[in-house]
Amino acid sequence: MSIGTAGRRCHRTCKVGPNRLARWVFCVLFAFVLPVSADESNERVSVADPYLELHTGPGRAYPIFDIAERGEQVEILKRHTDWFKVRTVRGREGWVSRTQMEATLTGAGEKKIFRDVLFDDYLARRLEFGFSFGTFKRDSLLSAYTGYRVHDNFVAEFTIAQSAGDFSTTSLYYGALVSQPFPDSRLSPFVALGAGRFINTPKSTLVSAIETKGDLANAAIGLRYYVTRQFFLHIEAKRHVTLVNYNSTNHYTELSAGAAFFF
Q1: How far apart are CA 91 and CA 70, in angstroms?
Q2: Quick check: 2 pLDDT over 50?
Q3: What is the pTM of this model?
């Protein structure tokens, strides 16, 4: 199933139901964790050793079922830790160790080099998607965000958040610029400044309830901690200032923690 198909299915699912934000979080997670079909532009390398050993799985405990001979080209399909799934010109697919893959040659005839995965991938990330749970003016808060790393020290984010209280529901929509002064650290502090809109909707049971909309600005401090593979954790404290009208502003404190994955 492609991401496009998953997206259409999620679109139909997310149109209904009372908790649209929670469904939206689930749908984005569902769409992005699905496997993607192999790209036709996958890299190809040539075997320089007498042969490459093709295992049935990503590990030495898996048996060898075929080989690719010297001079034969193999297509790199994907990587799992230090094992690579490849396809031979005969259409045979198997797993090859990093040690053997580093003895192959590129199209230019140079030795192929593979960088380490995991933390290096985190440092080279571009897209992020995450979610958080916390409190907003003492009410529960659920938020989801997408981010794009525009510089080693800066990430541009867009956040959708919803807080449900006893008397009203508050929805927040804002963009923010996140600055990480130590981006190469596994535990990285950050600060952020954002602006957007808020909507406060009173419960329908209240008499003369009026929906309130206005501008929003916020500032945050927090920590990010890279865990493993494509995931990291984050905690933050955020101060929101909402402008109801030219004569009235409200201040709210948000405390939240969550997880995110990156590409």
Answers
A1: 16
A2: no
A3: 0.61
